[in-house]
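Posting here for the record, re: adenosine-5'-triphosphate.
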Amino acid sequence: MVQSPPISDTFYSLVLIRRRMNTLTKFQDLGISLATMKSLKRMGFEEATPIQAQTIPLSLENKDLIGQAQTGTGKTAAFGIPMIDKIDNEKDVIQGIVIAPTRELAIQVSEELYKIGYGKRAKVLAIYGGQDINRQIRALKNRPHIIVGTPGRILDHINRKTLRLENVHTAILDEADEMLNMGFIEDIEAILAQIPEERQTLLFSATMPPPIQRMAERFMKDPQIVRVKTKEVTVPLIEQYYVEVQERSKFDILTRLLDIQSPELAIIFGRTKRRVDELSEALNLRGYNAEGIHGDLSQAKRISVLRKFKEGSIDVLVATDVAARGLDISGVTHVYNFDIPQDPESYVHRIGRTGRAGKTGVAMTFITPREKSYLQVVERTTKRKMDRMKPPTLDEALEGQQKAVIERILQSVESNNLQYYKQAAEELLEQQDATIIVQAVLKMLTKEPDTTPVKLTEEKPLPAKRDRRPDDRNRSYSGGQKGRQKAPVRSRQSSTGKRHNNDRNRSNSNSYR
Ligand SMILES: Nc1ncnc2c1ncn2[C@@H]1O[C@H](COP(=O)(O)OP(=O)(O)OP(=O)(O)O)[C@@H](O)[C@H]1O
Ligand SMILES: [Mg+2]
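Prediction output follows.
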């Protein structure tokens, strides 16, 4: 290879931008059928994202593929479009299967595939644990073309002989590394053994730690590796900060940050299920509208929590890594890593819940003094430094809340439909000085920092990280330490508190100004 002369970073980014602009790819240039084009148009997809542009033509040629691209860049459609396009809808047999690590992801992927398959009238069915199996058996009798499922439930159906995969030509492993982490490798092997060998196998993720390569060797034929070359593993539109905190002050700092940053929708990651339960309960106690999601909740509960979050009737979702993998919820503005994740891949996936499909986002990571080595590991992986943010003070939190209230008042002034309140306002102004009245209104509307005591069991810091170098110099990031810590099993659902009225539930209402 010819050694190219060193070029400056700015020049390099310019080249990248130009290249990206030149490669804006229209879907019709990728060899997709008119029927599928119709669906894409209906979905509002105009141009293919880079991972779609690069993998769809290969996939249409039936090549086995490993696709890696940043979070939120459209990997689902990258595998979904060609799979759907190859469906023969005259044949009422299962022709494509997607295996995903969690129920929520299976549902989400099946919904996206359903939309892509609209033009072709492809029938898509999600099958996952926790849902009544008889209902699924009846749905399977309806002869879907594509199945999206979690490994355990797919195997269950295979063993019951309610699912036959002998006509499948495309098998997709979404979030394969997570399925490895969760110990699904044997299940996946057993499922793939039921699918004809001439099949096409595709594997997609935002991160590709080394064990994935081994998995690929085992299940795939001469796979083409498509990595969307970007300077960074994480999406540049996500601002990344870290805050140094003591374990015991984490919760107060979190609530201050929430008050200052007023996220529209936020996801807070905790390390264990117990942590998620305690955090969501504590947040509700302090007047935030939060709910938790993790693997011990019933499937119906998990789906209802996610639905509420998507609709905005709760604005803080507290989650474990697994529960949030791959989830595509538009409008998540902030991600808080209450506990730093154990491996750098998790960090990438966690913060990737924001900054999706070209939007911006903010990621905040709490680091306790003994976990500082993890910060470096993450930064080395993402090839990006996080900015340090000082823990905000109570006064700053109050100021943040006041600003938010002033913003709301100004919006209300602009909305210009205040006629009904005019007389009362004039009467009030006769009785009192205008400044005092505004002060009172501000005080009533401002959610003053709440110090209601809460109970949070302290997490032990992660074991000091050995300074591991990437074992493969060509890799764009280092392999993470695998094997997730098993969380203590406890299933307690958090209460569904609405955001409390500002003046109630406050223990220190007189301690300011
Ligand atoms: N070509 C496109 N044009 C516009 N929007 C798109 C396009 N492709 C995908 N999207 C939208 O972008 C969002 C993110 O897509 P998707 O969930 O597939 O990301 P992902 O790469 O799988 O992310 P993750 O690594 O987190 O799983 C979705 O809402 C999807 O509908
Ligand atoms: Mg995905």
